[in-house]
Amino acid sequence: MQYANFEQFxxxxxxxxxxxxxxxxxxxxxMKNKIGSSPTSEQINQYVQELYSSNYSYSxxxxxxxxxxxxxxxxxxxxxxxxxxxxxQIIKDTLTEAEITKLIFxxxxxxxxxxxxxxxxxxxxxxxxxxxxxxxxxAGRNTIRVIKGKGLKDGISNISSDCTKIVLxxxxxxxITQDDFLxxxxxxxxxxxxxxxxxxxxxxxxxxxxxxxxxxxxxxxLACNLLLRGANVVLLKNQLRHAHLETTLCYINSIVFGExxxxxxxxxxxx
Length: 271
What we know:
Layout: H1 4-12, H2 18-35, H3 41-52, H4 58-74, H5 97-105, H6 110-122, H7 126-130, E1 137-138, E2 143-146, E3 155-158, H8 161-172, H9 193-206, H10 215-228, H11 233-240, H12 245-249, H13 256-266
Helix pairs in contact: 1-2, 2-4, 5-6, 6-8, 6-10
């Protein structure tokens, strides 16, 4: 089946962005591969019931249901489904400061070291890092400017002065201009998210970190480590460029180990 008309509908009638459109089209393809190219309302309801009963993530379930609703609108047979309650998110297996230090110092070259440092200190998302240009780095203010980040929002993320020094060292050894992408492949192409994931994963193996390590865990780790050092939730919200404070609050619920650490600090010495 050709999905060009459906994509046009999503652009013109719903004003959606390309990444969202691709996700919706892929969701409809998965549904049709499972229940047929001309599903009945009963089959679709059964599909959604099985989806809601599955172990897929909340976001996967919600985005799939949204895709089906948009597709039903396109087919002039609108369907509206109920929404499951969003579970309370707990961020697990974040990296300690010592583990991130090991990760940084086991990078195989200055480019990979700079990538890991920026992810760790700024909390940038993978795609945001890949879209950075040299001009988005402000050494004087120790900041990174994010253009059209998640939700197409612009923003500013801070980095440490130590991170700034590493970026400057990287730039001194790179033949790139202000308009160039900050990171490129060895073939001089724009860095892709897949390449960044591979760099982070391989470096973690070299560093002998036993946890699952991927770019976004460095964002989670920054949030938890800032909180453990006493940062307030508003600073954290601004640093991660969250649209809603509720999104930031999930990190408060995720640092139970911080309470244990505080208990060890203040507990009486009986033995």
